[in-house]
Write a structure and sequence with these properties.
Number of helices: 11
Strand content: under 5%
Oligomer: single chain
Radius of gyration: 19 Å
Distance between the termini: 40 Å
Largest sheet: 2 strands, antiparallel
Number of strands: 2
Low-confidence stretches: none
Helix content: over 70%
């Protein structure tokens, strides 16, 4: 096999892995704080794509639109949490899973009503422009998306690790009752965390808008399964694990797509996922059971 082609496939996979990482980071932070498995996560990615499309139609570039998209999705997600998730937190986990599945259908239906069901694209005059790193050619859109995703994810990790709010988030995730005794508003922490997790997904959507054509079900069709694979692979609730797992899965899918074809690119990553869980059931960073 030509080494240059292999390096190109690996580079593209790594670029996609950066986006996977920020998608999975949003999913894992929600689970880590509330133990809620958010099946509507893919739709928040889709919502980010379509809100970016709307901003583009108003003359705003996709990268300039990203902060607006993040803010709007945060508000929407916080509303969903307050009205639908919060009342179910003291009930069996299956209730929350069913609610998020219902949220998924609601968002898909709203997108179809507002934007229609046809494929759409965000126009960008320099979308196909690229730079070269040795034998590897990378488009500016993918490179910018990769660097932005890693920068935001790294900043979010720093916030969770070193700020007062981050300490409150970790306290609420480890022992909500003790956190309340210490004066932490656990419900507020959960609301902000759910909104932030959904916003990370929307940011991934905004960054992908110039790269992928969009349709109302793209989130659940292309991105929900990899997000869950990465979260479990990196250990449920482990933010750093989600980042590393995202890069790993992206890299494996890039090379796997070259070897097996794009339609089977997820086969290798899922196979590795199963093998790792057979020997490390808690994921890469959870140790053995």
């Amino acid at each position: 096999m030509n080494t240059e082609i292999l390096l190109q496939a690996a580079a593209l996979g790594l670029m996609q892995g950066g986006l996977y990482a920020i998608m999975a980071a949003g999913l894992t932070v929600i689970y880590g704080v509330m133990k809620v498995v958010n099946f509507a996560h893919g739709e928040f990615i889709t919502l980010g794509l379509y809100l970016t499309l709307t901003c583009a139609s108003l003359g705003l570039g996709p990268y300039a639109a990203a902060p607006i998209v993040v803010a709007v999705v945060f508000i929407i997600a916080a509303g969903f949490f307050r009205l639908m998730i919060l009342p179910s937190l003291n009930h069996p986990q299956i209730n929350q899973m069913l609610i998020t599945i219902g949220m998924s259908f609601m968002i898909i239906g709203a997108i179809q009503i507002i934007w229609g069901a046809n494929n759409r694209v965000v126009p960008l005059s320099w979308a196909r422009d690229a730079f070269e790193l040795g034998p590897v050619r990378i488009t500016y859109t993918r490179g910018l998306a990769f660097l932005t995703a890693l920068g935001v994810a790294g900043s979010f990790w720093w916030m969770l690790k070193y700020t007062r709010f981050g300490i409150a988030v970790r306290a609420a995730s480890q022992d909500p009752a003790s956190a309340r005794i210490c004066g932490i508003d656990v419900r507020r922490v959960q609301l902000v965390t759910f909104g932030a997790g959904a916003s990370l997904a929307a940011l991934a959507g905004a960054l992908m808008a110039p790269i992928f054509p969009m349709n109302p079900t793209i989130g659940v069709e292309l991105f929900l399964l990899p997000s869950f694979v990465i979260v479990v692979l990196g250990t449920m609730g482990n933010f750093a694990g989600a980042l590393i797992g995202g890069l790993l899965i992206g890299l494996v899918e890039g090379i796997g797509g070259l070897l097996l074809g794009s339609s089977l690119r997820q086969l290798i990553s899922l196979s590795i996922f199963v093998i790792i869980l057979l020997f490390m059931p808690r994921g890469l960073f959870g140790g053995r059971t």
